[in-house]
TrEMBL record, chain A:
Cell location: Cytoplasm, Cytoskeleton
Protein role: Acts as one of several non-catalytic accessory components of the cytoplasmic dynein 1 complex that are thought to be involved in linking dynein to cargos and to adapter proteins that regulate dynein function. Cytoplasmic dynein 1 acts as a motor for the intracellular retrograde motility of vesicles and organelles along microtubules.
Domain Roadblock/LAMTOR2: from-to ranges: 4-92
Entry's family note: Belongs to the GAMAD family.
Classification via PANTHER family: DYNEIN LIGHT CHAIN ROADBLOCK (PTHR10779)
Descriptive protein name: Dynein light chain roadblock
Family matches, as SUPFAM superfamilies: Roadblock/LC7 domain
Keywords: Cytoplasm, Cytoskeleton, Dynein, Microtubule, Motor protein, Transport
UniProtKB/TrEMBL annotation, chain B:
InterPro entries with a match to the protein in the record: Dynein_IC (IPR050687), WD40/YVTN_repeat-like_dom_sf (IPR015943), WD40_repeat_dom_sf (IPR036322), WD40_rpt (IPR001680)
Compartment list: Cytoplasm
SMART domains listed in its UniProt record: WD40
Upper taxonomic lineage: Eukaryota, Fungi, Fungi incertae sedis, Mucoromycota, Mortierellomycotina
Main location per the UniProt record: cytoplasm
Bias type Low complexity, positions: 31-43
SUPFAM superfamilies xref list: WD40 repeat-like
Pfam families tied to this protein: WD40
Species the sequence originates in: Linnemannia gamsii
Protein name: WD40 repeat-like protein
Length: 97, 630
């Protein structure tokens, strides 16, 4: 279990990373390095988004599935890795060099 | 269920058809008693049809003629089609509606011989409609039968769409419920639930796996949303011809602290992976003595894989022929095989018995081809063993490398090994005393197995730390050249001798072609570049990594840089494209440098090198003739 903590901590301490949120299938937040309310918001909103994305992919081609999602906004980049029952969300500000 | 209804319908249809056929047959029999021959033949044919129909459970010929030959899409056996073809001489094809056996001309039989093209009916593959997991019904494969396969397919599609609809509605309903429920209760998991989730094994796996993916994605430096139309202040990081740049450095706090890197290598299959081996950490007694890490260039913080071993791993490489296997030689003389698909302990290992090595294995190499390859290992007790990768229990062959005319001991303490490209029999070994010998694996005509005592390559004054043959590529073959590096601060270039001239006595001493003497510390490794014929790199104990280009200058290196914190560098390995060099240092870091444009050769480079080598040869012989040795 401490490995998990360490991994999350290491991910979140990389430069440009604002936060890491781990969510389960129902949209309930398991761990977050952001403050609680923001983390919860991300949790529910992103899990909805992932669900819709998964369905769209499955409808387009029933053999296909969603493996990774990357949302690029003006201010941040949100990366979501859905796997099995859980989702891991990382928010970072990309390097503009 | 639906299937049964459909089956019922089909059965009814079949029964009807049979009845219709029977009626028609009676009708036929009655009005034409005169035609004895033809009814016989047609009735026999009809019997055949019936037999076939009953065996195959398909409606027989009469339905074809009724429905017309336009039913091309349906599934018909060739037998019934051939039965169709024979009646048409007695009726014209277009009048499919005529009952059997009616003659266009009354009375006399005029057989019309028409040329009929046998229509080859394509039997389409059986449509297997398999329901995927999302649909709750449990149906097996669905085989279309009967004439209305098209209709059935339509039906299935409609049903599927309906069920999909239903399921979506259900999901919607559920989600509404969930959302309705969630604001009521506290929208959080309780702490206990959280803890239990976090401790579950699959959560740990999930975090491990997804964090690797995310870290790789995060390391992308290129901002694809970059707006080139705006003027930016230039951040010139151009690589002009002669600069090298640190790409990344790999170090893991847990695994590589207090250890030094003993070997580095690149993967043949995935050019972004490299493997490095470490010796033991004297401060951490409980951790495994030998560690092998596989690093990914795109994942700078943590190794992709970590493998353990009981004793220090001195040399490691990816298997040339299996992208998943990693082979390592250890301080105890064992050879270990790890698999990236398995866990961190070795999958196979050799025994610590007399069969293999009992001294540290400092060098291993793989020779052969995909189907017939061997692993060759040498250790400091003077034995060379060859192994089959799937049978590491005992070596395929063991060879003692003896040099009988040595003053103190016969056995040769081997520190490095080199096979010329493409060779599987003759190899060169570098020893602790500083001489290089050629040896043969097998006895051939004119040479015995073991060290070839005809030549000894003497020139170094200290143990040889690296030996590398020129890789075979390009328009010219320089594979008879090899470089050696040694603790005596020099790097020497040699040419291999193969056939002893009859007049030379045994133990002829071969002198190096050239010696590179600019180093100011032990030179720990030397490697030719795999793409440029005249480039090679060296690493030294003072922390310097130098790149030499023989076409530009043979006296000084072209590029030289201090790597990392200036600790001694142990090993060097070029990537397959020749642009990246992986350097293992004694403080546990692995550095990857990019040498840029220098790595690409020009067409004349080969010629220039040939000229340089010839010059060296002529100076050497000239020097020898005058009595000067290097």
């Amino acid at each position: 279990m401490s490995e998990v903590e360490e991994t999350i901590r290491r991910l979140s301490s990389k430069k440009n990373v604002q936060g890491v949120v781990v969510v389960n299938q129902l949209g309930l937040m398991i761990r977050s390095t952001l403050e609680a309310s923001l983390g919860k918001q991300y949790a529910t909103l992103m899990s909805d988004l992932i669900r819709t994305a998964k369905q769209s992919v499955a409808q387009l081609d029933s053999q296909n599935e969603l493996t990774f999602m990357r949302i690029r906004t003006k201010k941040h980049e949100i990366m979501i890795c859905p796997e099995g029952e859980y989702l891991m969300i990382v928010i970072q500000t990309p390097d503009n060099s | 269920m639906d299937r049964r209804e459909e089956l019922e319908k089909k059965r009814l249809k079949l029964a009807e058809l049979r009845r219709a056929r029977l009626e028609r047959r009676d009708a036929l029999m009655a009005p034409q008693p005169t035609r004895t021959s033809t009814p016989g033949s047609t009735s026999s044919r009809r019997d055949l049809d019936d037999l076939v129909a009953s065996l195959v459970d398909r409606p027989a010929t009469p339905t074809l003629t009724i429905d017309g030959s336009s039913d091309a899409g349906s599934d018909r056996g060739a037998t019934s089609s051939s039965a169709v073809m024979s009646p048409p001489p007695y009726q014209t094809e277009s009048q499919g509606g005529l009952p059997h056996g009616t003659l266009p001309f009354g009375g006399r039989l005029i057989p019309e011989f028409t040329s009929v093209e046998a229509v080859i009916f394509d039997i389409p593959p059986k449509e297997r409609v398999v329901y995927n997991k999302e649909v709750q019904t449990v149906e097996g494969s669905f085989e279309p039968q009967g004439p209305s396969e098209e209709e059935l397919r339509e039906q299935i599609k409609a049903e599927f769409a309906q069920e999909e609809q239903l399921r979506l509605e259900l999901l919607e309903a559920e989600r509404m419920e969930n959302e309705a429920v969630v604001p009521q209760e506290a929208p959080e998991l309780t702490d206990e639930e959280r803890k239990s989730i976090v401790q579950s094994a699959e959560f740990v796996d999930f975090v491990d796996h997804s964090s690797k993916i995310l870290e790789r994605a995060m390391t992308e430096k290129y901002d694809f949303m970059k707006d080139y139309t705006l003027g930016l202040d230039d951040d010139t990081e151009d690589l002009n011809g002669n600069r090298m740049r640190l790409v990344s450095s790999f170090h893991d706090d847990r695994w590589s602290k207090n250890r030094s890197v003993t070997d580095v290598g690149w993967s043949t299959k995935h050019p972004e992976l490299l493997v490095s081996s470490y010796n033991k950490n004297p401060l951490a007694v409980n951790e495994p003595d030998g560690i092998v890490c596989v690093w990914n260039i795109h994942l700078a913080d943590r190794p992709e894989f970590v493998f353990h071993s009981q004793s220090d791993v001195l040399t490691v490489r990816f298997s040339d022929f299996h992208p998943n296997l990693i082979i390592g030689g250890t301080y105890s003389g064992q050879i270990l095989l790890w698999d990236t698909r398995a866990k961190s302990l070795p999958v196979l290992k050799t025994h610590l018995s007399v069969g293999g090595h009992t001294h540290p294995v400092y060098a291993i190499d793989m020779v052969g081809t995909q189907n017939a390859h061997n692993l060759i290992s040498v250790s400091t007790d003077g034995t060379m063993c060859s192994w089959q990768l799937d049978m590491l229990a005992q070596p395929q062959e063991t060879l003692a490398l003896d040099y009988p005319s040595h003053p103190t001991t016969d056995e040769v303490a081997v520190t490095t090994l080199g096979f010329p490209d493409g060779e599987t029999n003759a190899f060169w070994v570098g020893t602790e005393e500083g001489s290089v010998y050629q040896a043969n694996r097998y006895a051939r005509a004119g040479s015995q197995a073991g060290i070839n005592i005809a030549y000894s390559y003497k020139g170094h004054f200290g143990p040889i730390t690296g030996l590398h043959f020129h890789p075979l590529f390009g328009p010219m073959d320089f594979s008879d050249l090899y470089l050696t590096s040694s603790v005596d601060w020099t790097v020497k270039l040699w040419r291999k001798r193969t056939h002893p001239k009859p007049a030379t006595p045994d133990n002829a001493v071969v002198h190096p072609l050239y010696s590179f003497e600019t180093a100011d510390d032990y030179v720990y490794d030397v490697k030719w570049s795999p793409t440029h014929p005249a480039i090679f790199g060296t690493v030294e104990g003072s922390g310097k990594f130098e790149v030499w280009n023989l076409n530009l200058d043979t006296e000084v290196p072209v590029m030289s840089t201090i790597v990392g914190a200036g600790k001694a560098l142990n090993k060097l390995s070029w990537s397959k494209d020749g642009r990246h060099a992986a350097i293992g240092s004694s403080d546990g870091h692995v550095y990857v440098y990019d040498i840029g444009e220098m790595a690409t050769p020009h067409a004349e480079d080969w010629n220039i090198l040939q000229r340089t080598v010839n010059e060296m040869i002529s100076t050497q012989t000239h020097g020898n003739a005058l009595g000067n040795d290097y």
